[in-house]
Design a protein that fits this description.
Length: 254
């Protein structure tokens, strides 16, 4: 996986292109959060201040800042000027400025924040820190389609952990791209990982057209696993970029 270390100016985002921007959270951010609150609108700020766990608060804060600064790379709007609406399932989208055509999705976990942005397509991204988990089989039986669970149980023990997170991130990316979250049954669709690109099939519990979806899997760091879901068919092109270069200013002014 190649992640570009660049900070391009405002640029046009062509259809069928998806830019995925990443921030590696480390001690730098705990020391330099002053001023980041200026990027947030009143609702975001209120929610941020309710966090009691420092790491969870930082993930939330940097996620909102990353969304705003990312969108402002493609539209000449100050990061603090973006306004968002949330649908009935809690999925955010752009309210103002209107007519940009941009869609985005955000994910964060311990140590990493990710924002995917595209134009005119549904997009979902999920990133997880692939911790060893003693209850992988229990979680798979509870949440996954039977074929996925069988695939995990049939794998050698040393491969089950990796396989679990492959399925988990793909499923999360899909339900986020649909904008419905866990209102969609996770066992209502199944992924086939036997091919270079993941393939999905649907049941009557979650009807959809598999031909309109493309999925991507990556390892942005040694400990993180990422999956991306994009609708629209065609041949989407994905680019991964670090949002912050080492030694550079963290973000532009809000």
């Amino acid at each position: 996986m190649e992640i570009y270390d660049g900070d391009p100016p405002i640029s046009h985002l062509a259809r069928e292109r998806i830019d995925v921007w990443l921030i590696r959270l480390d001690s730098t951010f705990y020391r330099q959060t002053a001023g980041f609150e200026d990027f947030l609108d009143p609702w975001e700020l209120e929610r941020y201040r309710r966090f009691r766990d420092e790491k969870a608060a930082l993930q939330h804060l940097m996620g909102r800042v990353l969304v705003r600064t990312t969108l402002s790379r493609y539209v000449d709007v100050p990061p603090a000027a973006w306004r968002f609406v949330v649908n009935a399932f809690g999925c955010p989208s752009i309210a103002t400025p209107s007519g940009t055509g941009l869609t985005f999705n955000l994910s964060h976990t311990a140590g990493l924040v990710v924002c995917a942005v595209t134009r005119g397509m549904d997009v979902g991204v999920d990133v997880e820190r692939a911790r060893r988990h003693a209850d992988i089989e229990k979680l798979a039986r509870h949440s996954f389609a039977p074929a996925e669970t069988a695939s995990i149980l049939a794998a050698p023990p040393e491969e089950r952990h990796e396989l679990f997170f492959a399925y988990w991130t793909l499923k999360e990316s899909y339900i986020k791209a649909r904008g419905m979250g866990l209102a969609l049954p996770l066992d209502g669709f199944a992924f086939d990982l036997s091919q270079p690109s993941p393939r999905v099939s649907f049941t009557e519990k979650c009807p959809d057209d598999s031909g309109r979806w493309a999925f991507f899997r990556e390892r942005p760091t040694l400990e993180h696993r990422l999956a991306l879901a994009v609708s629209g068919g065609g041949a989407p092109c994905v680019a991964y970029r670090w949002a912050v270069r080492r030694g550079s200013a963290l973000f532009p002014r809000p």
